[in-house]
TrEMBL record:
Transmembrane stretches, start-end: 121-141, 147-167
Domain Rhodanese: 16-108
Coiled coil location: none
Alphabetic keyword roster: Membrane, Transferase, Transmembrane, Transmembrane helix
GO MF term set: transferase activity
Biological source species: Blastopirellula marina
Protein name stated in the entry: Sulfurtransferase
Domain of life from the UniProt record: Bacteria
Annotated Gene3D superfamilies: 6.10.140.1340, Rhodanese-like domain
Length: 185
């Protein structure tokens, strides 16, 4: 079972009529750069459906809306909630990108290098290093390039990027004002 979706404009209208709980499952650095007003940051890699649902107290019977950059991570987060027995979760179609491009209110902060770009930079560096070491030091160093290439293929096939998950945990990808795994606007 997959979670239902809602358009950014429809969610914005619902939020104007009353409180709607919205969590943003991107990394703290992505959240710090731009996020929907009043969205609470709960990074996907640290997401605990039980803790979030317990913290909601009186609004636990109301839908929980989940947003990310484009909708993919929010879908994975919704799957985690459903697997934990909480089925009243809704994925925001198109994520923060669609929200902002619809002209809806966002909070903009410090600009960062996207996680996707960081992965491309890191992978390119490792491939180049492996190739140069393979040519000038020992042919076995070409294995570094092969390993990175295999990792990129795996990431493309499974839509899971180990390098991206590791980079997301680096200090420069953490927001300084977060505590307990959540950041609030």
């Amino acid at each position: 079972m997959s979670a239902p979706t809602i358009s950014p404009k429809e969610l914005h209208e619902r939020r104007q009529q009353g409180q709607c709980d919205l969590i943003d499952v991107r990394t703290p650095a992505e959240y710090r750069e731009v996020h929907v007003t009043d969205a609470v940051n709960q990074p996907l890699d640290r997401l605990s459906p039980q803790e979030i649902m317990q913290a909601r107290n009186g609004s636990a019977d109301q839908p929980l809306y989940v947003i990310c950059k484009s909708g993919t991570r929010a879908g994975k987060a919704c799957d985690k909630f459903i697997a934990a027995g909480y089925e009243n979760v809704v994925n925001v179609e198109g994520g923060t990108d669609a929200w902002a491009s619809s002209g809806l209110p966002v909070v903009r902060g410090k600009k960062t290098i996207s996680l996707e770009r960081q992965v491309r930079i890191c992978a390119g560096f490792l491939v180049l290093t492996g190739a140069l070491l393979g040519m000038f030091v020992h042919p076995y160093f070409a294995g570094i390039s092969a390993f990175v290439g295999a990792g990129l293929m795996f990431a493309g096939i499974t839509d899971t990027c180990g390098m991206g998950m590791m980079l997301a945990k680096m200090p420069w990808n953490q927001a300084g004002s977060c505590s307990g795994g959540s950041c609030k606007a």
